[in-house]
Amino acid sequence: MQIGALTGYIDVAQLALYAFWLFFAGLVYHLLRENKREGYPMVPDRNGFRAEGWPGVPPPKTFVLADGNTRLSPREEPAEKVNAVPTANWEGAARQPTGDPMLGGIGPGAYAQNRPDVPDHTFDDALPKIVPLRAAPEFWVATEDPDPRGMQVFGADWVYAGRIVDNWIDRSEVVIRYFEVELEGSGDRVLLPQTYAKINSKTRQIKVNAILGAQFHDVPRLQNAETVTLLEEEKLVGYYAGGLMYAKPNRLGPVL
Prior knowledge:
Elements (H helix, E strand, L loop, with lengths): L11 H23 L26 E4 L5 E4 L10 E3 L8 E3 L32 E3 L19 E3 L5 E11 L4 E9 L5 E5 L4 E3 L4 E3 L22 H17 L10
Parallel strand pairs: 6-11
Antiparallel strand pairs: 1-2, 3-4, 5-7, 6-7, 7-8, 8-9, 10-11
């Protein structure tokens, strides 16, 4: 028997190789299991069958968030409500929106309905992350850039909706996230995501191709005039995104 051999057929190098294989198989199993902390078990909308696959969903683990709160994962969450009905009596059938499709949480207007209804906060000083400039005097619009405040806002049909009265800034990224629009007629104020605004600095007009002028009156409102919650951001962006398909009848159906 050679030096370093345990038997005539197995040596230390083989044992090290087998140990690595066992470790690697265990690592793959662990990663596959941990990957199912979010989104599992999968529950179809109609038959209630719970699909976990292999390996199964791991037991709940408590995670400590930056603000000191805790969150279980995985966790039981209420089913999201969608204002739509199936177009056929089989699983996976397309759905037809009911009521106002832009508020139905379906299609391009779908959003995470179970997001926390609290504002996001900055990491260092735990301040509300997205606020209007009136609540954050340490920020301002650069003089070389056009200030949207006072600009007129129009929908995709060029119907006047209102005017910009303030900019909402992201304290962490130092960018404008939303424009605050004072609506014509009602005087209510709603937020317009900056990414949906086409600004013409020469005419001081903003066109929003996602929705029509009259549809600004149905934009989801805020609980607090000085902050926006994570859930409210989901609803806002979902409403404007839904308008890309549902704002006008001719936006439905195939392009060709």
